[in-house]
Amino acid sequence: MFELSEEQRAIKKAVREFGEKELKPVGREYDQSNEFPHEIYKKACDLGYIGVAIPQEYGGAGAGQVVNAIVGEELCRADSTVGYSIQLGDLAVHMVLMYGTEDQKKKYVSMIPKGGISALGITEPDAGSDVAGIKTKAVKDGDEWVINGQKMFCSNASIADWIQVIAVTDPNAGHRGLSAFIVETDRDGVESFPIEKMGRHAQPTCDVVLDEVRVPEENLIGKVGRGFYQVLDQLAASRLNTAGIHVGIAQGALDRALEYAKEREAFGRKISEFQYIQHKLTDMKISVETARFFTYRAAWKFDQGYLPTEGAAMAKLVAGEVARSVTTDAIDVLGGHGYAMEMDVERYHRDAMAGPLVEGTSAILKNTIANVILGKLPAEKKVGK
Ligand SMILES: Cc1cc2nc3c(=O)[nH]c(=O)nc-3n(C[C@H](O)[C@H](O)[C@H](O)COP(=O)(O)OP(=O)(O)OC[C@H]3O[C@@H](n4cnc5c(N)ncnc54)[C@H](O)[C@@H]3O)c2cc1C
Q: Which atom number of ligand 1 is nearest to the Cα of residue 203?
């Protein structure tokens, strides 16, 4: 796959126009207000830009992961802060789509393209990269599960309709003792507290307290004891979206640096005439293209019916690191102006800094890729198998 189809190019253009009109002018405002852009999210939902990869029978566009990555890219290219926040409403749908019941898909997945929001509760104070270290417990009581624990860095939690919570159901089974649950945020005992953070200000990232939260048996996703493996499969899908987002952040920073370099003068010349600036812009472009290639290729693999464990890890690793480095370079191209809040690039940089941390740090992704190289993990498998 080396070229987008005519239809994919048309979608890319339409989302770019939407982003330029609706996101770009207000990004800084949302960065400073720390508010989620509900109205823009609703408009994006109405246009079918949210949950693009969700199958049509569950209200999505059914357009696949390549188109989803393109949409995330264009939204975040237009504005990293607002783009990031609205592109993650479907954060927790993948596991439900892969392992959930038909009722769960109809109830919890189909609400997302209509404006619903999901959240992912894996990380805890003492368990980040080491998912098997989760301490939140779910204990069976009749036909209900009672959940107690604390989640951390839970994106969207305070604005979400439901959180996918990973909890220990068998304390003696290690990573084989984890299970996944849908926890509606309006249930008794669920409380979310947004934390202050460096970037991504338009999306709440929360501590979540789960205190004697009761959910019915039908809120279990997949099988008891399979939560760890279901998380791994889910990450291989959600990393494609995250990669697309970071391609867009990097491209948006490059666009701004290029525009500035063509206007700014020093020593009687446009700074774009200095070889140093030309090489910097060239390196940035090569990095963005590399990240885009890895992302589209892995997303394309998914659309062929495969879960690209290695490809998605590579795409997220490359795109996350590229977003960090390209946004740093953009600040350099703008000189002192790049450091000023009135220019977008410092904000793009703050938003990009989370890229190599979320959904597996770059170190953890390297571990995954190494496991594939060493034959301990398959590079890909059929979706849902
Ligand atoms: C903005 C933001 C949003 C987030 N959103 C969510 C969310 O929605 N849901 C959710 O569940 N979590 C979320 N997270 C949490 C994120 O997934 C974790 O921060 C991440 O998994 C790392 O865990 P940790 O912070 O506990 O770091 P640790 O696991 O403590 O790691 C610390 C350092 O040690 C390294 N390290 C750890 N283990 C190894 C190893 N085996 N080999 C090599 N190096 C290692 C790491 O790479 C890192 O550099 C979010 C985080 C951020 C910053």
A: 1
Same domain, 293 and 216: no
Measured from the CB, is residue 154 less than 6 Å from ligand 1?
yes
Q: Is 35 considered catalytic here?
A: no
Q: Is 218 exposed, middle or buried (0-12, 13-18, 19+ CB in 10 A)?
A: exposed
Domain boundary among 227, 261, 294: 227
| Residue at a domain's end among 210, 227, 244 | 227
State whether 181 and 263 are in the same domain. no
Nearest CA to ligand 1 atom 35: 363
The whole-number pLDDT of residue 1 equals 63
The minimum-distance atom of ligand 1 relative to the CA of 166 is 11
Distance 96 CA to ligand 1 centre (A): 23
Supply the residue whose CA is at minimum distance from atom 48 of ligand 1.
361
pLDDT tens per residue, range 170-198: 999 999 999 999 999 999 999 999 999 99
315 occurs within a structural domain: yes
* Extended strands (E) in the chain: 118-121, 137-141, 144-155, 162-168, 178-184, 190-194, 205-216, 220-221, 265-266, 269-270, 306-307, 381-382
Shared domain check, 245 and 373: yes
